Amino acid sequence: AGTDGENMVITFYGVRGSIPSPGPATNKYGGNTSCVFVELDNGHNLILDAGTGIRKLGKRLETDNSTVNILLSHGHWDHIQGFPFFAPLYQENRSIRVYTSPAGEHNKLCSLFDQIDGANFPVHADDLPSQSECIMENIESLLADEDIVVKRASINHPGGGCAYRIEEDGASCAYVTDNELEPPNKVATSYDQWVSFCHGVDVLIHDAQYLPDDMPHKHGWGHSLVAQVRQLAVDAEVGCLVMFHHDPDRSDTEIDFIQKENEHFFRGKRAPATSLCAAEGMVIRLTPQSDSKTVIEVS
Fold first, then answer.
1. Residues 178, 286: Cα–Cα separation, whole Å
2. Burial code of 73-99, b = ≥16 C-beta within 10 A, e = fewer?
3. Nearest CA to 15 among 286, 274, 281?
4. What's the pLDDT score for residue 108?
5. Residue 216: which residues within 8 A CB-CB, separation 6 or more?
6. Rounded to two decimals, what is the model's pTM?
7. Do residues 191 and 200 make contact, with C-beta atoms less than 8 angstroms apart?
8. Helix, strand, or coil here: 273?
9. Distance (Å, whole) CA 275 – CA 297
């Protein structure tokens, strides 16, 4: 983890949804798709999703021999498309473990490796020099063997998938991307269940891709409205809300406006104490205190 003795360090490498959106209108928040890096105080690390943001993270991890643990929310392109360009894949005997939902729940096998097939990508997964494996069963217990506490919940998203809650020594974060809080179709996890799953986390990273103008056309597409996520943060009494998975058409100026609205909405409310729109390169450090509170620093 961090050199200052923080308990948990969260770094954002990709915050965009659906498709990469590079260009002058998205420079501030970034155009790479979903990838978040969580460093734990026990020396382990977790990578949440493998969108295009994972390429830069891979460069950072090249000089590190530790096991790579990837928690995949689901197999849609914007969450897997950076994986073939992840440098540790090409390191001799580097241990890489991909944790995902059981086969059939949202992908036929492990989509991270399926795409490295020699046709859609010039390398075949069977030829990778790293020691890579895809784990679909007993995820929580296997991670617990390494002192990594992870809980899962099913997201409301076409094809399904998982949200994750990560806890260590009083620090906690929840990663709930590609989740529709009020879906028109079958509900995998109800709003009240989300309030319970996210309750009291220091950091809630939640899909906030849509605004009212996107409706009703995109109702059922598996993403939440900004206003719904604000209310969840209040009801779940989270410490810090991070709005994530920005729409590819959402400019920096438009996200700035959402941030200003957030500050106005949360003023005077008990929680969250902080609200942020996710940006590439943003770092959140969590340091638990003896009084059961956690100091949250953002840089």
1. 24
2. bbbbebbbbbbbbbbbbebeebebbbb
3. 281
4. 44
5. none
6. 0.94
7. no
8. coil
9. 12
CA distance 180 to 267: 25
Which candidate, 299, 298, 210, 278, places its Cα nearest to that of 26?
Answer: 278
Could you tell me which of 153, 191, 142 has the C-alpha nearest to residue 175?
Answer: 153
pLDDT tens per residue across span 176-232: 999 999 999 899 999 999 999 999 999 999 999 999 999 899 998 899 999 999 999
Per the structure block, which two tokens stand in for 158?
């076409």
Q: How many CB atoms lie within 10 A of CB 296?
A: 18
Q: What is the pLDDT of residues 203-219, one digit of tens each?
A: 999 999 999 999 899 99
CA distance 69 to 109: 18
Parallel, antiparallel or unpaired: strands 274-277 and 240-244: parallel
Q: How far apart are CA 88 and CA 281, in angstroms?
A: 20
